[in-house]
Amino acid sequence: MSPRVSVGVSLKMYFGHADARRWFEHVAASAAAHPAVVDGRVECFVIPTYLQVLPALAAFEGTPVVVGAQDVATEDSGAYTGEVSAAELAEVGVGLAEIGHAERRRLFGETDEVVAAKAAAALRNGIAPVLCIGESERADAASAAADTIAQLRSALADAPAGRVLVAYEPVWAIGAPEPAPASHIAEVSRALRTEIDALPGREGSLVIYGGSAGPGQLTRLDGSVDGLFLGRFAHDPAALADVLDEAALLADRRAEAAA
Predict the structure, then answer these.
(1) Is 34 known to be catalytic?
(2) What phi-psi label fits residue 173: left (phi over 0), alpha (psi between -120 and 50 degrees) or beta?
(3) Structural domains in the chain (count)
(4) Is 254 helix (H, G, I), strand (E, B) or coil?
(5) Could you say which of 101, 110, 135, 246 is catalytic?
(6) Which family does it belong to (predicted)?
């Protein structure tokens, strides 16, 4: 188990350009002043829209915050109108890419094969996938673990070596008023961590939880995940700062346990 804890935010398409730039400024100031983010105990990443990537990179320059992208193309170049390649994203400084989110599957028909191709594209260009996996229907934790492990294996079967952030997001919990029960999240996340730890070439990979995650979630999960992947709850920079504080406490507990 890594002592490092990761906290990320996907802005989806909620913010306009001016609102996003103001949010970046608030979060950059907060992250630059947070001891655990500065010294690397807590990884903080932000995933804006494509159009917001460059101003995000500018806003977070000089801070440890990593900027990600919400998607990548399956190919590195060519006649693919409307697509953005992992190669170009890496060129401008993007470090992470969200791959396989349930909304991409539901709204745009992404299949397991497409998810695997995008994960491979990210990794071969030095971008760490934030690989979104989760069961579609509510089920017991053992069944959910088996389902998500199968998704993980499928997505990474032919991918180059590299670090992966496995974002466990039960589809039935995304956008719900409350996250999945803590015991369910814990059992599935531990199974996913065992699986990713056993895969060669995945050193430094973490398992984080999304799906209506917000302040207090890390405390309730009591170390069973390596961090959180936040959505609308982080639109308030103060809420994100609270989660970073929780992450710092978890990172400290892990470091003490490893000593």
Answers:
(1) no
(2) alpha
(3) 1
(4) helix
(5) 101
(6) Belongs to the triosephosphate isomerase family.
Contacts of 217 (CB under 8 A, 6+ apart): 179, 209, 228, 243
Q: In 3-state terms, what secondary structure has residue 131?
A: strand
How is residue 44 written in tokens?
A: 């903080």
- One digit per residue, pLDDT tens: the chain, 259 residues? 566 899 999 999 999 999 999 999 999 999 999 999 999 999 999 999 999 999 999 999 999 999 999 999 999 999 999 999 999 999 999 999 999 999 999 999 999 999 999 999 999 999 999 999 999 888 899 999 999 999 999 999 999 999 999 999 998 877 777 777 889 999 999 999 999 999 999 999 999 998 777 788 898 888 899 999 998 889 999 999 999 999 999 999 998 888 7
169 is catalytic: yes
Give the pair of three-digit tokens for residue 22. 């103001």
Q: What is the CATH number of the domain that holds 204?
A: 3.20.20.70
| Residue linked to tokens 């900027």 | 67
Return the SS3 of 96: strand
Range of the domain at 246: 5-258
Angle, helix 112-124 to helix 141-156, in steps of 10 degrees: 60
Gap between the Cα atoms of 186 and 184, Å rounded: 5
Active-site entry in 43, 110, 135, 169: 169
